Amino acid sequence: MPHRLVPPLPAHARETLVRFLRAQVEGSGASGVVVGLSGGVDSATAATLAVEALGRERVQAFYLPDAPGTDGVAGEVRHFAEGIGLSLAELDLGPWIDRLSSDLPELSDRRVLGNVKARLRMVALYAKANARGSLVLGTGNKSELLLGYFTKYGDGGADLLPLGDLYKTPLYTLARELGVPEPILARPPTAGLYAGQTDEEELGAPYALLDAILYGLERVWEPSEIAKELSVPLERVLPVVDRVERNRHKRRLPPIPKLGLRTVGLDWRD
How many domains does the chain have? Predict the structure, then answer.
């Protein structure tokens, strides 16, 4: 049954995001952007927008595998990069992780290891960006930001987040408009931090349902109203509400106690 909680692709989204990227890069005096390509729809969409905004010569793409068995994805990433005119550099993070694992037994915990992998990816991208005078282009979307489905100072650490106000489901509409290849669109969303990982399995619900709930919360609907509109038990909605609240810290600067007249993040805002 149709419902009113389907987040749309905003009008002029493509034009707005292209202008945003161009203005941010030009305004910062950066030479361009660096982006990590994963084989997923988010990074492909962000990279395509960057090429449209800046030209391919100002966008440097990197593929950062950390384990064997990724040849299929690597081939698709190379094919995609070639298709939009990008040169693609590859950097194997496996040796980094092996060395850290020998020094940090905590990495035997899959969750801890996943966060470290995400942070190592960003270490690599920032090193490449700093050397070029470029900005790091983040690829996170609004659904991930609200749900806290990202690693603090990992994939959540970037200079620009062009997709940060776009829910996952309408992002696919934009990706198709941009010509992102079908194999990328068809791949189940994953952070790629361990074999067999998928977003929707970890989040416990499909993005279509999660986005509908988040869209209702954005419009200040009560959880009971959202459940009724979606014809789902309230017990499906409340964990999403709780997850948004519990992950507020990921969307904020670290808390700072107020001592001075104006305090960064409180009443001194840039």
Answer: 1
